[in-house]
Amino acid sequence: MKILTYVIMAVAIALIIFNLTQVDFSNPFQGDSTIASIGVVAGLCAIVLLLIFRAARKIDEKVK
Q1: What is the pTM (predicted TM-score) of this model?
Q2: What average pLDDT does range 20-29 have in this prediction?
Q3: What is the C-alpha to C-alpha distance for residues 62 and 64, in angstroms, rounded to an integer?
């Protein structure tokens, strides 16, 4: 499970980097830049959720 979370985090980071290259920083909320901005935020949310999941797993292991 630990390896899977690292793989998913790597994919999320790759998607964030890709979407950052698609954002037009002069108009970040116009056209395709909106979709890329949403993709960046979604990737960041995925990373935060995975970090919370890892912390919960560590707590669960300490309790057992």
Answers
A1: 0.85
A2: 91
A3: 6
Question: Could you please report the per-residue DSSP string of 1-64?
Answer: -HHHHHHHHHHHHHHHHHHHHH--TTSTTSTHHHHHHHHHHHHHHHHHHHHHHHHHHHHHHHH-
- Cα 21 to chain centroid distance, Å, stands at 15
Longest dimension (CA), the chain: 52
Burial of 43 (0-12, 13-18, 19+ CB in 10 A): buried
Structure tokens at 8: 């998913």
Copy the structure tokens of residue 60.
Answer: 């669960």
The pair phi, psi for residue 8, each rounded to 5°, is -65, -40
